[in-house]
Amino acid sequence: MRALWTAVTGMIAKQLDIDVIANNLANVNTPGFKKSRAEFQDLIYQTLRLPGSTQAEGLLVPTGSQVGLGTRTSAISKLFSQGDFVQTGNLLDLAIEGEGFFQVQLPDGTTAYTRDGSFKLDAEGRIVTSDGYPLQPPITIPREATHIAIGADGTVTVNLPGQSVPQQVGRIELARFANPEGLSSIGRNLFTTTAASGDAAVGAPGTEGFGTLAQGFLEMSNVKVVEEMVRMIIAQRAYEATSKAVSTADEMWGMANNLKR
Fold this sequence. Notes:
Helices cover 22% and strands 31% of the residues. The chain is an alpha+beta fold. It folds into two domains: 2-80 and 226-257, no CATH class; 87-219, no CATH class.
């Protein structure tokens, strides 16, 4: 009974689709979050008669007989479209308008990448993420600084007591990738490189295709609640229809088993 096993693959696929949608909705208010999309492809086909084969009379068969054996997940893609900006007024909140990722250093010394620009200062005055990962290249704000200004080009300046001219303390650099969908998500709004993403190209904001920075703003999740709800309804109905195929196949099997009665 091929229909049973074929329908099972459809139910498993739609269950995974719901899992992806649930994660998107759970992160609808997560700064810098990028939604995912489950993609599917059909499985192999059982060929009962090959298209174009020759019959005994020497005639070609115009159409064949092939029965599909279900579906499977081909990919779960990250969609890096721009999220909406929200003004916070916090001097250390940064949004990237355009392409690029902030670079942060993990505890093991490797570099991770994020679109979440909700930065803080640690005890040493370094600009860090909410988990304490320092921004790369490192930027330290003097303790006596009275104001922090971050330009669209990433230049970080501070006002110091007794000085009329702001002092530059560093410059934020962004990273770009040939294939950002190839990045690996590790949680905490962070990504790491893979062979599919390629190496990071680093540059100053506003140059060579890099986006610019907006101080006092945060980029929110690019999840659209209405779109995800529609996708969830479609996935739910598809799951329901596929489950009907399972019950119908079971009833047919039961009829065959009861033919002697």
